[in-house]
Amino acid sequence: xxxxxVGLLGIGVVGTGTFNVLRRNQAExxxxxxxxxxITMVADLDVARAQSVVGxxxxxxxxxxxxxxxxxxxxxxxxxxxxxxAKTLVLEAIxxxxxxxxxxxxxLAVHGTEIFAAASAxxxxxxxxxxVAGGIPIIKALREGLTANRIQWIAGIINGTTNFILSEMRDxxxxxxxxxxxxxxxxxxxxDPTFDIEGVDAAHKATIMSAIAFGIPxxxxxxxxxxxxxxxxxDIRYAEQLGYRIKLLGIAKRRTDGVELRxxxxxxxxxxxxxxxxxxxNAVVVxxxxxxxxxxxxxxxxxxxxxxxxxxxxxxxxRLHTADAAQRVPHLAFQPNTFDQAKSELPVLPMxxxxxxxxxxxxxxxxxxxxxxxxxxxxxxxxxxxxVLQREADEVGGEGANQTDLIILTHDCVEARMNAAxxxxxxxxxxxxxxxxxxxxxxA
Length: 444
Fold this sequence. Notes:
444 residues; alpha/beta; Dihydrodipicolinate Reductase, domain 2; Alpha-Beta Plaits; 3 domains; 40% helix
């Protein structure tokens, strides 16, 4: 059978990995796909560098539209990234009848509804395993492997940069700013790390997973996003003393009245497997009603791990290339005509309606009655306390200090109630600094 011809848009780190793995494992991949898969055309602004990567026999051009216009190209791989020209090129490739493979989580989280609708109308596939958690096949697991389940919740460490930073902060007792500089020096963090450290990258991925898990459209604009920039080394230390570790989690949770979609630092019991995922590794926990808890772990970024997911998508398309479009796995797991009804039944809930438990750290005056006032406010708000840890004053401020840290763990409550309680506690004259609040997820 004639090999499938692939056009590659952008041959940076992932593009190079994709080309190299596809060439290295060509025979194995052909046995799996039932036909050859060959990158025959590459578009990159740096033509000379791209040609040095692919060698002879592959056409390299500077204009991505030349790849899309080539009638011999069956699949277009988009590895440019971003929301701008990448969106235009993906839609043009779809309009030209090309299947598309992309690792662009930002594009799909923001414009996925439009892109998937265009692909369905044209009868082509858009595959995006590499868009979430790099080489971990979490999209295929959610979309196919767990299809018998009513997914109840997903919680994932889905940004390697932030997980590396948090691991270093815990291991070395250093503050965020110090570790960020080290992460940049080692190449784990970009020169501008905003998307990573502010939680935006993780929110893109959580948005995509929520759509597949619950049959709702991608709704990135409704996700709650909080990064790790305000975390202090002392909170990581206190969490450890209480039997928890702090991780940046992407969470999607089904409730009877809607879906929680949120990214923020979370305390996780140290005994949970996901709490022990360290360095730049990724992990996703999925809870299904039939299968129970499943864990997916591996490298969430990198040249060849991400290439592994890109090529898996190429193989899927090669297998289904001639199949009736109606018999293919839907882009977001559920048949498209069910989305509007699902959206009305399962809205993405505002953060004020989220239910979770909390870690609170209060810097307070070391005098009688402070704890009673604080716990009284929580009691009046109907917030139940799970544990209290009060540090000795000299541990916090040195010998003779007149202030201390009060750490409180709560049971579950509605976020709006906690917001009101924090405001009331902050107004106390004996609370000396802004209160630190970190959400706590038992993941039981």
